[in-house]
Amino acid sequence: MRSPIIAFVLCLAVYASAQRKPEAFPTPEQLMNPKFWGRNSSGSMTISFDEIEQAIRVDVTFPPKVDKWIYPPFKLQKGMTLNGATAINFDFKILPMDDYKGLKCSHLHLKGFTPFDAPQPGSWKSFKIPVDKLDLGNALSFGIGLNPHNHKITYLMKNITIEGTPKPRVRRPEITTEAPGTVFFENQKIEVTSTRVLDNLAYELFDWKGNSIQKGSWPENGGKELVFENLTTGYYRIKTTNSTDIKLRDFTFAIVPDPKTRIYPHDSFYAIDAALSWVSRPGSFECPWYDGDTYRLSADLVAWAGIPHLRERLSWGETQAKQDEAPEYRYYLDNAKLCKERNILISGMFHDAPAFSDRIVKLPSNLVAVFDYCKATGETFGNAMGNWEFWNEQDIGFAPDPVWDYAAALKAAYLGFKAANPNMPVTFGALCAGPDSSYAMQMFNNDAAKFSDFFNYHTYSPIAGYKRIYEGIRNMLDRCGRKDWAIWFTECGTNAEGHSTVDGVRKGAKAHSPEQEMILAEFYPKSQIEHQMQGCSRNYYFILGAYNERNGSKDWGIMRRDGSVKPSYAVASTMTKFLVNAKLQGEIAVNDKIKAYVFDKPDNSQVLCYWAISDLDTKGGGIDIENLYETTFEIDLPDGTYKTADMCGVPGTIVATNGKATIKANRFPAYIDGIKNLKATTPAIEQGKIIPYSPGQDEDLAVIIRADLAKEKLEITDRKSCLEMLGESAKATIQVWNLDNRQKAGRLVVKGGTLEGLPETITLPPRGKAQFEVTYIPQYDHVNYEATLEIIGVFDGKSSSKFSVPIKLMGLFLKNCISKTLEIDKPENWRRNTSAQEYKCTFDEAENAIRFDVAWTKDVDKWFYPERILKLPEESLVGAYAIEFEVKTAQNKVENDFAYTFLMAVEGTEREVGKGHHLTYPPPINEWEIRRVILPPDIDYTKIYMLRLGCNPKGTELTYWVRNAKLLFPKGAK
């Protein structure tokens, strides 16, 4: 890295004088302490000390239909070891019960499972389990447990002792600390430890910019702790050398403001997606703190960073096995309490459903079950929640079901959460495939806006693309009559750093290089401010915990797998320190190299955040940090000295004289605090509001209509938002749900055709449904062969929300359409566009098709989307109704399956540049089949110059054939 931007002084290190104590076996007193025993069971588990029996007591209740097991681990603390143990002794007793059904097995869990013969309930039995043959060098815990057949069971353990001669634990050579997550507080003494004594062990301390702060010999070659005092807030790295072949990994740590100085305003913009109950499950990453409690570590890290909002996950199927049984929330509820204790509000959601909810594909169709679960969940979690979302990214793979099925489930969920607390904000699951896509449009055509309180979206787009995303959002808000709605991004991340390049501490999970970590650190504040400029009310950065996707090649978290934090953590902490309760006024024009933004604080002072524009601001990929974009600029300020901080929190000052201050800047954001009277040149767009829908006196939102349409001669198309009918009529089952506790009578009003078999009057039972088998005969547009089936219920004089399905009469259209051939059979007309290392495009005469052979020899994200530039004007998509083609594929994988299959209509002709409209098509198989992609009406086809056709295969070798591509136009189209 380059020379420092802001100079500061650090004191010399002082060394601890105390020698580390030798490790010993856990004492009998420690083994009888329930706080050292972890919960580990497929049931709801408590661990306590039984005063009468003077024993550790384990109580477990299991949910139905679960594999029953109980193995609480005793977790070694600092100074403990199991290395050198030859046997473990203990007494064991199962409490008496009336219907004891026996055990499947009982084991000592230590480097595998060693069986012991547990006694019948009511009597104690002593055991001595030999462990001298086990490799216990790096053992961190042992468990004593069983696999019962009973729904409930309680057992006791006492007189636990360990025989042998203790030896030090065999550790991976590393530098460690007692500070959880490697996060220290301002003015706290910094102590780090080497797990090995190494000849000539020396260290060097660097700041986050790569400047050497100090260096020297490690005390007693690692035999004593290394101590730093009076370091400022910031982010630091320790590198080491020694005379052996052993290399210690770099050790990094953050210093953040004392949590006692923090405030947590719940109207703040700042939030993080932690997915606490899923991503921080025990074992997800190393946690040598808090007895391995990864949930507490994650909750503390959010609080210490000063972030007042956290996004969570929940599993309906895991917490409720039967509809007539109350949900058991277990660690989900424990984690909500952890957050509440830290004054952090949760955005909660779930995106699964149990079998009793009558799943369609993934979505539930039993609307009473949805209502009841959401009501019970809302009541149980109470004011630990800041809001609820229903589902997640339903417009892509989390819900293969069509949009009208999602809308029906959303309505039931919304009413359930509101029944628990009418004042709790609730929204639809975040959209991510386009804020004004056909899916979004049809979701709102099904009256989703009456069952949501604000707009919810996700993006991983480059910062330069945000403005266009918000234009799409506001276009949709105008369409659905919610112009003043608040806009939230409940996930926001980036792919700017590319595939992770470093081998992580766990096999198969790649990690970021230091350079990649700095790209993400730069992205964090820049993206947060651009969202605020566009009028976003809250943004949940993705993600806190260590988490990998894309076969391990994409590292997401602000944490690493070893439990330490990346520079982004210090960056987030610094941003909330200055801005958590500040309001963005807007951007101040300085020059074309600088971005500068002024924030107004409640005390009438201001903060200026600024940076030099870099490739991260302007590009979508290929980002590096070699160029710091260093520059200077002047700004008008009253004479005086002002406090500053760089993005990691390192403090400094600037001086204004003669009404001006000259400021050094580079690509990394920095802050000036305590200024006044700055006026934004470009104001931020005003934030919207959380606005629940107020139903009219003639509306009844508790009546919900849904339909199961027969699959025969019907296909779901256009991003799950349209039906294609190959026949002239279709069978359907119409359901009318009543989520009220009172009976209702009325009828259904149908537009866009007729429903033969629908009764004139309908009676709805309390908390139930009426159901009818009907035949739908469409009333359609004879030019485009389109119809829209709309159904509204009128019960007891009040109207329900709308059920709406757009329908393409494809069978009739194909008999009457005009087709135009797309010339795709020439290899030279296709441009390579794939992540594969091997690629070949040829014409296969035997198949009369263009053929692609691709192979991936490296572990990368697998995608294949060759590009074909359209020959305009003869191949223009303007006026076209659909694109049809024949396709077949083969992979070196039995299933021949795919993560995604897209036809992309692209604005522009440059490779991988230009907005691509992702249109899905059913995955191809090993035999020739026709695929037909409806062209959505919300695309400006005058801007489409290129097509990309392909897939994301699951295999590493793919052959892809395509032929007979056509544009289909309706007769009479202009």
Strand order of the largest sheet: 23-22-21-20-19-28-25-24
Strand content: 35-45%
Regarding quaternary structure, what we see is: single chain
Overall pLDDT = 93
Q: Profile the largest sheet.
A: 8 strands, parallel
Distance between the termini: 60 Å
Q: Any idea what the shape is?
A: globular
List key phrases describing it:
974 residues, mainly beta, 8-stranded parallel sheet, 7-stranded antiparallel sheet
Report on this model:
With 974 residues, this protein is mainly beta. Helices cover 14% and strands 36% of the residues. A hairpin with a 4-residue loop joins β35 (640-646) and β36. α6 (367-381) packs parallel to α7, α7 (403-420) crosses α8 (438-445) and α10 (514-533) packs parallel to α11. The longest helix has 20 residues, at 514-533. It is globular. The protein starts with 13 loop residues before the first strand and ends in a 5-residue tail after the last strand. The relative contact order is 0.07.
